[in-house]
């Protein structure tokens, strides 16, 4: 598997987690 693809996938998961945290706090 391509490292770029993995990092991109990981970043999207991290971003969605941050969004969830923001929604919880708000």
Keywords:
mainly alpha; 26 residues; 1 helix; 88% helix
Please give a structural write-up:
This protein is an all-alpha fold and 26 residues long. The protein has one domain. Helices cover 88% and strands 0% of the residues. It contains 1 helix and no strands. The chain has one helix spanning 3-25. The longest helix is centred in the middle third of the chain and has 23 residues, at 3-25. The radius of gyration is 11 Å and the shape is rod-shaped. The protein starts with a helix and ends with a helix. The model has no long low-confidence stretch (mean pLDDT 91).
Strand proportion: under 5%
Number of strands: 0
Low-confidence stretches: none
Average pLDDT: 91
Shape: rod-shaped
Q: Helical percent range?
A: over 70%
Mind describing the biggest β-sheet? Answer: none
* Total tally of structural domains: 1
Give the CA-CA distance, first to last residue.
37 Å
Task: Classify the secondary structure makeup into a structural class.
Answer: mainly alpha
Number of helices: 1
How would you briefly describe this protein structure?
With 26 residues, the protein is mostly helical.
Question: What topology does this entry show?
Answer:
Layout (H helix, E strand, L loop, with lengths): L2 H23 L1
């Amino acid at each position: 598997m391509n490292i770029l693809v993995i990092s991109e996938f990981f970043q999207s998961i991290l971003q969605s987690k941050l969004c969830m945290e923001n929604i919880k706090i708000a």
